[in-house]
Write a structure and sequence with these properties.
With 180 residues, this protein is mainly alpha-helical. The protein is built from 7 helices and 4 strands.
């Protein structure tokens, strides 16, 4: 299998925390049982928020959560929103939302992307006062599940910056053959 890049431990912590908050430790155990031994061993150990972990572990965790909760792909946006809540309120990331301005947040897309992924880059284009375009390029870390969590993360992050009636669309997806 080709290299898929890495994600920060804070992403994995948020996913497991979401399951624990909504369904308890027993559900976390059932989610982990769905994983291959290597991923289960990583996730049962100490997950350090600033350490890098294989993207494959994150991808398999996302699908195990979806399967265990029986809600299919709709859960991914919720996982992304929970990640925004968990991470953007931490001392190390609070500065991203301090201006309470969606464009102030989004223009930091390159830096924010680098907090979570170790390959590729994300750019920001302001289209109007209420619209922007983000594009992710050259990343080895992508999947249908992860793209949906990114959409959920951005919806919640924009709301945290006083955005109203937030709508995030994904007209292209690398996981589905798109160019970015």
């Amino acid at each position: 299998m080709a290299a898929r890049g890495n994600v920060k431990g804070s992403v994995l912590q948020s996913r497991i925390g979401f399951v624990r908050r909504h369904h308890g430790d027993e559900c976390v155990a059932r989610v982990l049982e769905r994983l291959p031994e290597a991923e289960r061993a990583v996730l049962e150990g100490l997950i350090l928020p600033f350490a890098w972990y294989p993207f494959q572990t994150n991808e398999q965790l996302d699908w195990a959560i979806a399967q265990e909760m029986g809600r299919g792909e709709s859960i991914f946006r919720e996982l992304g929103a929970a990640s925004a809540d968990d991470n953007l309120t931490s001392a190390s990331q609070l500065h991203y939302i301090r201006e309470h301005n969606p464009h102030a947040l989004l223009k930091q897309a390159t830096g924010i992307y680098g907090v979570y992924y170790d390959t590729g880059r994300r750019d920001y284009e302001r289209v109007s006062d209420t619209r922007a375009v983000l594009r992710t390029h050259e990343s080895l870390s992508f999947s249908v599940a992860d793209c949906a969590t990114v959409v959920g993360w951005h919806v919640r992050a924009i709301e945290m910056c006083s955005g109203r009636n937030v709508r995030v669309t994904e007209p292209q997806c690398r996981a589905l053959g798109g160019g970015c």
